[in-house]
Amino acid sequence: MSAGVRDMNTRAFATFAAARPGAVLAGIVLGLIAVAAFFAPLISPQDPFDLAGFDLLDAELPPIWQEGSDPRFVLGTDAQGRDLFSAILYGTRISLLVGLLAVVIQAAIGVSLGLLAGYFGGRVDSLVTRLADIQLSLSTLMMAIIAMALVRAGLGGEALSRLAVPLLVIVIGLAEWPIFARTARAATLVETAKDYIRAARALGGSDLAIVHRHILPNILSPLVVIATTQVAGAIMAEAALSFLGLGMPVTKPSLGTLIRSGYDLMFAGTWWVTVLPGLMLIGLLISINVLGDALRDWLDPRARGR
């Protein structure tokens, strides 16, 4: 039986790969980026968080393919003499970490509330819907400004730098949960009206058991698709906040911080400090979005049939 299941999975993947080679390529690119970011301490020739390891004499060196470069710095250096290749690897790891953890928070809150709203309906549904509408009226940027201001006022700038990652995760997670809630609510309303849910109730199944054993497994497909797109959105939100100076500090750069730090240098000809992290961010977002689109079509029987 297990061999048959493996054969079916292999055939399904082969069909998927033949139908969507772009998605396979995006998966390979995303996998390489994730592996490189995860093993950044082993791959990077320099620790970009160690300020004592920088030399201002190495500042603003161009990439290795340009004249005046240094073989020690493949992608050049920034205004502080930091190796840009190392900074991009560490920055990508921070961006991926913030994006994944933020989506975990979004899913935990949104799916739970969406299941409650769709299953029980009535006042519970109205309350969750109103909460989602209120939350959507508050932008991620507004919440980040308020949260950062409160932390800075209460704990100081040093604590803000130390707590930047968990603070960004919480802010982005709390700001975007209505996306999951609305998707889970809509799917739960469809499943609740089906006969197998009525049969489970008639057999004396508890509400918790019905939601956990029957409804949740049957609404996972759209939630998985939403999760992939939300990871890209969370990474973009972190990059935007860091670019505006509301996210990661300069001493612990993410991709958004690197882009911001090199923005002024572009007019002086030091384009690589902004362009190369920007290309990494674009490649990361495109890979995730392409995979999300392919996954959405693959999990939709009508789209798969076409």
What tags apply to this protein structure?
single chain, 306 residues, mainly alpha, 14 helices
Total strand count, please? 0
State the helix count.
Answer: 14
Structural category is mainly alpha
Task: Name the helix and strand elements from N-terminus to C-terminus, one letter apiece.
Answer: HHHHHHHHHHHHHH
Averaged pLDDT = 80
Low-confidence stretches: none
Shape: elongated
Distance between the termini: 30 Å
Please indicate the percent range of residues in DSSP E strands (runs of 2 or more).
under 5%
Helix content: over 70%
Radius of gyration: 23 Å
Described by its quaternary structure, the protein is single chain
Q: How is the main sheet built?
A: none
Structure characterization notes:
With 306 residues, this protein is mainly α. Helices cover 75% and strands 0% of the residues. It is built from 14 helices and no strands. The protein has helices at 2-19, 21-38, 40-43, 84-120, 122-137, 140-155, 157-162, 164-192, 195-202, 207-218, 220-243, 255-261, 272-299, 301-305. The longest helix is centred in the middle third of the chain and has 37 residues, at 84-120. The two termini are 30 Å apart. The model has no long low-confidence stretch (mean pLDDT 80).
